Amino acid sequence: MKNNIGTNISMTLFGESHGAAVGVVLDGLPAGFAIDTDRIKSDMDKRKAKGRISTQRHEADAVQIVSGFFEGKTTGTPLTLVIQNTNTRSSDYTKTHGRLRPGHADYTAFEKYHGFQDYRGGGHFSGRLTAPIVAAGSICRQILEANGVQIGSHIEQLYTVHDDVFSNDIDVLKDQIHTVNQKDFATLDPQCETEMKALIEKVAVEGDSLGGIVETAVIGLPTGLGEPAFDSVESILSHLLFSVPAVKGVSFGLGFGFANVKGSTANDDFEYKDGKISTLTNHNAGINGGITNGMPIIIHTCVKPTPSIYKEQASVDYLTKENVKLQIQGRHDPCIIHRARIVIDSVVAFGLLDLWMSKNAQGDLV
Amino acid sequence: MKNNIGTNISMTLFGESHGAAVGVVLDGLPAGFAIDTDRIKSDMDKRKAKGRISTQRHEADAVQIVSGFFEGKTTGTPLTLVIQNTNTRSSDYTKTHGRLRPGHADYTAFEKYHGFQDYRGGGHFSGRLTAPIVAAGSICRQILEANGVQIGSHIEQLYTVHDDVFSNDIDVLKDQIHTVNQKDFATLDPQCETEMKALIEKVAVEGDSLGGIVETAVIGLPTGLGEPAFDSVESILSHLLFSVPAVKGVSFGLGFGFANVKGSTANDDFEYKDGKISTLTNHNAGINGGITNGMPIIIHTCVKPTPSIYKEQASVDYLTKENVKLQIQGRHDPCIIHRARIVIDSVVAFGLLDLWMSKNAQGDLV
Amino acid sequence: MKNNIGTNISMTLFGESHGAAVGVVLDGLPAGFAIDTDRIKSDMDKRKAKGRISTQRHEADAVQIVSGFFEGKTTGTPLTLVIQNTNTRSSDYTKTHGRLRPGHADYTAFEKYHGFQDYRGGGHFSGRLTAPIVAAGSICRQILEANGVQIGSHIEQLYTVHDDVFSNDIDVLKDQIHTVNQKDFATLDPQCETEMKALIEKVAVEGDSLGGIVETAVIGLPTGLGEPAFDSVESILSHLLFSVPAVKGVSFGLGFGFANVKGSTANDDFEYKDGKISTLTNHNAGINGGITNGMPIIIHTCVKPTPSIYKEQASVDYLTKENVKLQIQGRHDPCIIHRARIVIDSVVAFGLLDLWMSKNAQGDLV
Amino acid sequence: MKNNIGTNISMTLFGESHGAAVGVVLDGLPAGFAIDTDRIKSDMDKRKAKGRISTQRHEADAVQIVSGFFEGKTTGTPLTLVIQNTNTRSSDYTKTHGRLRPGHADYTAFEKYHGFQDYRGGGHFSGRLTAPIVAAGSICRQILEANGVQIGSHIEQLYTVHDDVFSNDIDVLKDQIHTVNQKDFATLDPQCETEMKALIEKVAVEGDSLGGIVETAVIGLPTGLGEPAFDSVESILSHLLFSVPAVKGVSFGLGFGFANVKGSTANDDFEYKDGKISTLTNHNAGINGGITNGMPIIIHTCVKPTPSIYKEQASVDYLTKENVKLQIQGRHDPCIIHRARIVIDSVVAFGLLDLWMSKNAQGDLV
Prior knowledge:
Chains A, B, C, D: One of its GO terms (molecular function) is chorismate synthase activity. The structure is a homotetramer. Chain A is an alpha+beta fold. Chain A is built from nine helices and 18 strands. Helices cover 28% and strands 23% of the residues of chain A. In chain A, helix 1 crosses helix 9 (337-356) and helix 7 (233-241) runs antiparallel to helix 9. In chain A, 66% of the residues are buried.
């Protein structure tokens, strides 16, 4: 409900872009898991703005573990992660907060909170809130990895540039996941990275922005994760993915492509081999009836272009009720998809761990 | 959690395809709402299999209101809807239940429930479970309509056939919603309905099946519905939509099309006119930062082809662990999208009412 | 929330006293558990009104398992229990429903539901709703018993008559639990049963009613059940116990008696013996810091006198807003504590199974 | 679930006694409420250890509002309160943590968390965690007070010393609530305060400790708060009260005294006067069928003696599995009930606000 999610483990998110800090409380984790804090840092770095294609706002993302962590291991009680906000220029916002930025939550926040919201930099609706999500996700992911699960994402499409897609060959896929997880700007084809970056820089000069599509793969999951009806794997993961700012589309396996094939193609035939059952194809992305079948989960997530652009836009001043021409100032990314990718990995990790922590899930955690 | 969903109102789903009955408990409804039971029946009829393009299994979908309904109105206590199962031929299933049907939950149910699941006709995973959802959704929808909200869906794509799309003109859209809600097979273009039905019949002869894409529109919503972070409108609705069997993709507004436009196009500029704020375009589908802005919500939902096909498929017998050739018998739809459309309307209605029942949607205490 | 409770397993309650049926949906149960339906019947019988000391309303409590039960075992999907209402004399109520019965929910239901509640026989607030709770509790209890847990309750006090109390000797306690579970009117001292029944008959003649205190014992629990902070064993069990109509007090171990002893007495010293840690006394009722320590849980629950009495009472007609003299008609128990005892056992069983189904609970289920 | 509670508003608790900080996230609050931070401080002071009768550990309880608070008002997004831990002498604990303190959660924490818990000073099970609860409760209470609700508690019994009880006269009760809220050591009879303090000092010299009973009154509530079945006012409040360390008994109105009266006494007759319905007596403590009837809520809560005593106790070293004689060192209160009183007020305030934030407490949709 609201800023808390999860059934078996839960995540409670708090903070605003220009408040004292942002953070998250992660509850229900198994006790005694040794957390690699360097790994948290490296995951946080993947989210960090870098180079010419990113905002010039340099965030200090030092993650402090405030509770639930003792002598290097989880205690089993609430694990709280806090990231102090620094380098925030509130002066950028105070004068103009009535002027609604198109594509942002400014207007809806005014309506929902009657003007009492912290409007600075998007406040609670800022992408800044994804920082604690990544920190929490990093811990969930480490637990999953210790149980043989690997997660990886890459930018499959950025406007006109298309990357390769994940392989259907499990061994190749494993290598691809390993590869993208080493990169800051995750593409399968290195040439594609160059083109995408060039495109972002070009659009930045125009004062415009871009979005794209992220492809995510998860391998090594046990069968039996997910619940019938309302807690299907797709339901749990989409709920989390649509909580990530700017996400407007989520699909599994063939996704919207299922409209273009017949059932005889859509179905994944079964095969019994080497003592185990698997499917010959994986159009359903490792999920049947909302429950994992042991095959890779393949997700496509569409991230819309950054709403903050420098081009002049038509808008309204909520306070004066005047139509205005809006010229956004400040520091903004012309594209966030390369940063969003680790946020996507993080919520997927949380969702899958939550399902795995259900006692009536098939697979047991180590 | 599992078969219960909702924060302010909740829906608890139960039953199996070939059990005694299927049903739902709807809790938290406002007291004193006069339910139109004929409307429930007409919504149930939209879900019913009809004509040559549908299964020959004729379901008796008489909805009994067991509780929470007194003297024609809701009592405010749990409203329970039960639909008896009739005309179930269990003999069709008992002999062959180890033989896993591709695209179905047979395998994952075996793995999750260790073989104790009711395997007849898909049991708890059957599309039959959408009947009580439609009955519950019909009540939620009536409450929304009494508050000025209209919901409508049509089949935007069926394999190679494409229907028109919903208009950006609110008045035209209102008429379109009215029109599709009158139809059993919902398309905007009547000619398109003829072509789609012909296509379904053709594929049925092949022993194959089809899926498609449903476009859903919601108008008349107040601003301020939805919560930041995890209970965004997109999160709540996608969670419910992916609980509908066969749904594999969900998007809002431009959806995956956001990858093909720049921010200057993606953003919806604001305008103040006749005392109210609205947007000039509606690419974000009436949702900013997860919260409604008063514009129409536009959803695209992809429904995969019916997994039950008559063509021979490769499979495995879970019990004997043998590779087998599977030839599905029984009565099955070559396409379910025309029936799925009302299920989609129903879960959308539930989700929006749930969000509306949040006190801080209005933010007042007394 | 509202009529749904539980984290790992959940129970959703529905129905009214004079509606079509009452029932409950039990979700999250382990799959493959063989339910003894005769045991459900015998538990239901313990709740049933019997003999001269009980109401003359003879309820048909045939429990129908509508879903989640296949070939004699739980399927792991929602298990629904429905009990049809029969022998309801609505005519007793219709004429007088505006006349508020003291001690009942008539007034508060009017206020909460604005007069739309089903007022017949207390509607959703009727003790009739405890029937499905007992049926659900019987299943939870059978699962606990299969895991070595025993639950038993007796009437420790009825007005001026006091029964013996449960023994601190675990072997004696085990026998006592066995004994009370054989009885319809549960006391440890048979002589005490005779006195209590005589007292109830005497008070019935006066047209008055009685309440009392139930003592409940649970043995065989593993250590580690319960959560810190808000899901302590005491929190979970009291939440459920106070959901039972007429319960006004709940305590654990010494309970309110803790006010009369010093810490040196209140504390239970530890002892390591025969390879296990236990406490020398059990004043804290097997619960430290909200988590089970393996010792017996001892609960005291106070059930107030039946609010329905035949003596004339001062009241108000809610509809006419007149002060009236109320003379309750119909069939009512002069005492319900002997029937409440199995309801108490049932909610305790549900609560403990819910805690046990938490993956991070120490003990694993068989 | 676990460390998160609440349906309409929620509270997520985190931290350990000797960790970096303790805190709470309060979500779902109405936006625009002006918080009096001095009031938070004065409520925190009531919880603070003071004078000779309390521990010599002086806690720095400076409450930092990290989020959800902007320009002096609530924003409507998660409000996070953090209290840094200072003056913690970890050295007191490290050497002896295997030695289980009777009456504490040491043993159960070892069993539940397999030894990975933060054992210093009780860790997550420390009374220190009540500090953020009081801070959160102070905010909830301010909101309730702004809506005409008053809450007050006093020590009704401390071992052999008994205070007066709250009056049945609403005007007198109002004054009594005002009086006890002015006091650090809350009794109605000043003479009683002197006797209780003297008794605590006497027992402290013995190296022993005391508990007692707190009586709490709530006035000014609207009718209709609370839900049928599982979210009765008693269920919600007892769930929270039993989450407070050392609470072992909770009752409402006559409580366990209901066993000693007949129905004709237990029932509260109704009266219509000056345009409103009220009851002539209030034995049911303003709650009928789990829902408020507008009369005062009267709660009795039993707090056991402080488990930390200086007398030698028999115990076990969990790590060496040896029986040991335990002599607790460090700084501990001989009695905590005078400090627990504000914690009780706080959870009661949270619970009632949560119920009030339910839309169907008023039942309207728009």
